[in-house]
Automatic annotation (TrEMBL):
Residues 1-19 form the signal peptide. Belongs to the esterase D family. The keyword Hydrolase applies. It holds the Pfam family Esterase. It comes from Sphingomonas colocasiae. Keywords: Hydrolase, Signal. This is Prolyl oligopeptidase family serine peptidase. Transmembrane segments: none annotated. PANTHER family: SIDEROPHORE TRIACETYLFUSARININE C ESTERASE, SIDEROPHORE-DEGRADING ESTERASE (EUROFUNG). InterPro entries: AB_hydrolase_fold (IPR029058), Esterase-like (IPR000801), Siderophore_Hydrolase_D (IPR052558).
C-alpha cells in the first residue's frame, strides 16, 4: 500500500536546514510574501551516508536540550525519515514533556532525492509470487538492514550518551513491513519495534517465512523485546457513508485483498507464543491514507515513555 505524505502536517512544521551553520538555498517566495531567514530546528543536523552499494542517504538527527540520564538517552529511528523526522522531532522537543515523554534522540533515515522505500523496505520474493501491486524496484531489505546495523547506528551513536537498551525503530506501511523484518532477522539491534499498518500482504506474506528460529534468537536477548502492532479501523473496509464513494471504490479491491487489519491481528496472536512482548490495537477512525500521524505519536510514546 502506498505511504501517504503528511502534506498538511509538514506545512505546519518546516524542515530543518542541512546544518545550523550552513545557509539553506533560497527558495522562490509566493507572490506578495516577504523574504525571511530559513527555519532551523534547534540542536538538529543532517548527515550524508553512503551505503556499500554506493547509495546516498540523509540521516536527520535531533538532540534533546536536557542532559542525559545516567544510562543515556533513549533513541528512536524513524523510517521514511524525510517525511516523518521534522514532525516527530519537534513534538518530542517542544511538547514531549506534556505527554509523559523523557528527553530522547530522534533519527530520521531518508533520501537526498526520490524515495527508494519500495526497494529498501521489501524482502526478496521468488519469481512468480503474487504481488497485489507492481513495483519496479524491490527486494533490498536485507542490504538496507545491514546498512542500518553497520553504518547508521554506529555512525550516530559512537561516543554519544545513548542507552542502547532503549533503542526503538518505527515504520508505517512498507516501513512497518521492514520493522518486522528487522525484528525477525536482528532482534539484537532494537529493544522496541513499532510496526504500524505493516504491509504483511507483500509477496504472499513473504515476511512470515522469517519466523522459524525467532524464538531462539529472542532467547539470546538479555532484555525482552517488544513489538507494538497497529492498523487503522478503515484500512480494509469503507468508512461509514463512503461505501459507494469513488475514492473508496478505486482502492476497494486492493484494500480488501491486502487484509491490513486482519493480517496484523493474526500476526500479533501468532507471536504471543514467542518470548516477546506483543500488543496490537486498531486505531479508531483511521484509513491507510490518514494513519501516519497516529503512527508517529505511537512511536514517540513507546520510545520515550518516562517509565519504560
Amino acid at each position: 500500500m502506498p505511504r501517504p505524505i503528511l502534506a498538511a502536517a509538514i506545512a505546519m512544521v518546516p524542515l530543518p536546514a542541512a546544518a545550523a551553520d550552513t545557509p539553506a538555498p533560497a527558495a522562490a517566495s509566493p507572490a506578495g510574501a516577504s523574504t525571511g531567514a530559513p527555519y532551523v530546528m534547534p540542536r538538529s543536523e543532517v548527515r550524508s551516508m553512503r551505503s556499500p552499494s554506493g547509495v546516498d542517504y540523509l540521516i536527520h538527527i535531533a538532540w534533546p536540550k536536557d542532559p542525559p540520564p545516567p544510562g543515556g538517552y533513549p533513541i528512536l529511528y524513524l523510517l521514511d525519515g524525510t517525511e516523518s523526522f521534522a514532525i516527530a522531532a519537534e513534538f518530542e522537543n517542544r511538547l514531549g514533556v506534556y505527554s509523559g515523554m523523557a528527553p530522547g534522540v530522534v533519527i530520521g533515515i531518508g533520501y537526498p532525492g526520490e524515495s527508494r522505500r519500495q526497494l529498501d523496505y521489501t524482502p526478496k520474493v521468488p519469481e512468480g509470487t503474487e504481488m497485489l501491486r507492481p513495483m519496479t524496484e524491490k527486494g533490498g531489505a536485507e542490504a538496507f538492514l545491514d546498512f542500518v546495523a553497520n553504518q547508521v547506528i554506529p555512525g550516530v551513536e559512537a561516543g554519544k550518551p545513548i542507552d542502547a537498551d532503549r533503542r526503538t525503530i518505527a515504520g508505517y506501511s512498507l516501513g512497518g513491513l521492514f520493522t518486522l523484518q528487522a525484528l525477525f532477522r536482528r532482534p539484537d539491534l532494537f529493544r522496541t519495534y513499532v510496526s504500524s499498518s505493516p504491509s504483511i500482504w507483500y509477496g504472499e506474506k513473504q515476511v512470515l517465512k522469517l519466523l522459524p528460529g525467532l524464538a531462539g534468537r529472542l532467547g539470546k536477548m538479555k532484555t525482552p523485546r517488544r513489538l507494538f502492532l497497529s492498523a487503522g479501523e478503515y484500512e480494509q473496509s469503507a468508512p461509514p457513508g463512503k461505501e459507494r464513494d469513488p475514492s473508496w471504490l478505486n482502492i476497494a479491491d486492493l484494500s480488501i485483498r491486502a487484509r491490513m487489519v486482519d493480517n496484523a491481528r493474526d500476526l500479533a496472536d501468532r507471536l504471543k507464543t514467542e518470548p516477546l512482548q506483543v500488543s496490537f490495537r486498531v486505531v479508531p477512525g483511521e484509513t491507510h491514507a490518514s494513519g501516519d500521524w497516529p503512527a508517529l505519536r505511537d512511536a514517540l510514546l513507546r520510545a520515550f515513555a518516562d517509565k519504560p
